[in-house]
Amino acid sequence: MWLKTIFNKPATSTHDEEKHDAVKKTPSQQSATPARGATPIAERAALQPAKSANHQIEYDEKLIPQLKGDHAALLLMYSTVANRMSADKWDAVPAALREMRMAMYGHLLTEGVKLYSYMRRSLAEDPALHDVYRSYKREMDGIGRVAFDFFDKYQGKEWIVSRDARITFKDEFENLGKVLVDRITREENILYPLYIPS
Asked: Which of 28, 80, 106, 118 has CB 3.0 to 4.6 Å from 57, enough for a Cys bridge?
């Protein structure tokens, strides 16, 4: 399955399971003040892929704005981590990385299920465009693996006490940022315009 190749991890972590369970509860079962971050996940869970009678993923006019919104949120989260490093608030970095990891997971899941599944079918008749779609998907698989390895490496707090580990983190984090900005720019300018009603 493509998800396993990107994440190279089980589909969910304990934290993801808790969020998933919170989404499954009825409003009366949920507490009056939902956990931080629960609302976006609940909203995303409510967005079901548009399916036709033959169970194919259909065009969704709200998908590209949603994905672009995800991009903006990811870049904001990236800036938050960078600001915490600059302010020497290293204790707050791992939690911000976990939040960013969860947001990226949801974004890649949405892209995989709604965007790539639709494009695989809708671009099948045009070999050149189909090749563009396939190369973006393949590249994203690799970027996702690297990003999740990075998030997993720095999810704990033990590394923040070491000056050398913080220097290594900064270098790796800057490289991740460059890759994300490049990928987001190319997705929004090249890949997303190929997502049109068939």
From this structure: 118
